């Protein structure tokens, strides 16, 4: 029984019917003859070769011309029997037979002559030539060349001009992508987002509550400016978002535009500067002109330090493209009224290099710090990014937040994504807690390299090295607890790692805690020397970090015996310093003081190294037990490590 076209008519609806075909019927495919076609310079070369061959084959089959007097002599001698007259040439043939052309010759060359044509000459206004041909009985006739003239114009003018125009457009497009399109140098390259197109809201931003509170006033002013103008207040002209990379400065700017519901101009500082002098200033003028036409709106300049660097240490002089761009930006920021509804947001992670004129009141009046999130903020960020991820019931985002101290929003978003990818790789439908743990280790220590072949002797060295770090951390008061020990190679050069995670966020450290950090870093080298009576290169990174901590204790923190409470740091603006030029670091103490610093660093490291060796020597049995189990299992978690410590 054939059921096609029968039964319930509701089941027989045509799948191809739609709004474009209200009566059903098949939908014709879109006619896109060049879909998927990519331009290549090879096509241009083929076109050039083809035109050259066409010109060589069809346009060069022309008999050479002779002098007009010689042409007349051949008529007199009777050699020429028939003459074809055109506006351009007189063509003489040696036979009287005339070959009629086809009714519509395809691409017939207007200057091509039959095979019996032997003489051509350029006509001269000589009325005697007609009389001469009549006297000699020469058959002559005129030929119209209108169609040939059109082909001549096409091949001689239209095609070459079109070809060079195509090449010019191709080169300009390439130069425009590199920032060198000379025809658009004065046009700004801002990405304009229309009102209502921005879906980002403050609810999509977490971990920067203080920064959001500062920006609420900007949103409120753009929505209800009368409330501020009635009392005589003025909203800040510019708001500078300052913070480390990845903390959400650009996201905050988009949230402000989304909450305010106004047009949003987004542009990078590097887009202003070009190789041509004056381009940046012209683009600044064009940007502010468009923004005034669309007010109220928000201008967001990302990476402001690209054009806003201080002019104090400018060695190149005043006629610099970057400096002219900065000057124009300063003028434009002074040139608009704060009540016009035009707000400038900018972001930078280098406020110490900005020009003081940018940071004065009246330009960027308010500086908003977008810092690294705390424990509560990290948990909120993780919840936002994991809202679209299928999580298992055992996932504890609070524990993940505790394990990611110092991470910024971009790092946390990457961890959530890596955990989801690891779950898919493991064939699981839900993301588990171990996926987050592996994602954190991958971010901190690098990718696992299980296929790297390490000799048994080197594996023992690595095992005791990492065990030394872990034991010293366990026996040092105030040290961060050990979460995992592994001898699986990771990253570029790490043959193993000891993962410590702080219990809480720390903003201050005592002198004893700094010395404890040095102890933990020296634990690996001390364990190697204690067990193998030799040292290896595996502690290079540990020694660098330990030396840096000791140097900062002396130079920055004033924790030395001779220069107690004295800062010996190199002069320069801090990351959040006030109006300051670009840092020019230089030393402000003598060579004798530098020698003391070097000797004191060596003394601190040597003293703490002796303490670490003594600690490991008193716990040699625990060191051997932990290293042996580590060689067997390749990694130990926090629970297994604590059980080994309790055994004594």
Description:
The protein has 648 residues and is of the alpha/beta class. It folds into four domains: 107 residues, Signal recognition particle alu RNA binding heterodimer, srp9/1 (2-Layer Sandwich); 179 residues, P-loop containing nucleotide triphosphate hydrolases (Rossmann fold, 3-Layer(aba) Sandwich); 71 residues, Helicase, Ruva Protein, domain 3, CATH 1.10.8; 192 residues, Peptidase M41 (Methane Monooxygenase Hydroxylase, Chain G, domain 1), CATH 1.20.58.760. It contains 20 helices and 13 strands. The strands form three sheets. It has a six-stranded mixed β-sheet, sandwiched between helices. Strands 3-2-1-4 form a four-stranded mixed β-sheet, with no helix packed on it. Helix 9 links the parallel strand 8 and strand 9. The longest helix is centred in the N-terminal third of the chain and has 32 residues.
Short description:
Helices cover 45% and strands 10% of the residues. The protein is α/β, with parallel strands linked by helices and 648 residues long.
Number of helices in the DSSP assignment? 20
Apparent shape? elongated
Q: State the share of residues found in helices, binned by percent.
A: 40-55%
Which runs of at least 5 residues are low in confidence (pLDDT < 50)?
A: 1-35, 101-115, 177-186, 572-584
Task: State the end-to-end distance.
Answer: 83 Å
Q: Tell me the strand order in the biggest sheet.
A: 5-7-8-9-6-10
The radius of gyration computed from the alpha-carbon positions, rounded to a whole number of angstroms, is 41 Å
What's the CATH class label of the largest domain?
Mainly Alpha
Q: Strand share of the residues?
A: 5-15%
The computed structural class is alpha/beta
CATH architecture of the largest domain: Up-down Bundle
Q: Within the CATH hierarchy, at the fold level, what is the topology of the largest domain?
A: Methane Monooxygenase Hydroxylase, Chain G, domain 1
The biggest beta sheet, please?
A: 6 strands, mixed
**Tally of structural domains:** 4
Total beta strands: 13
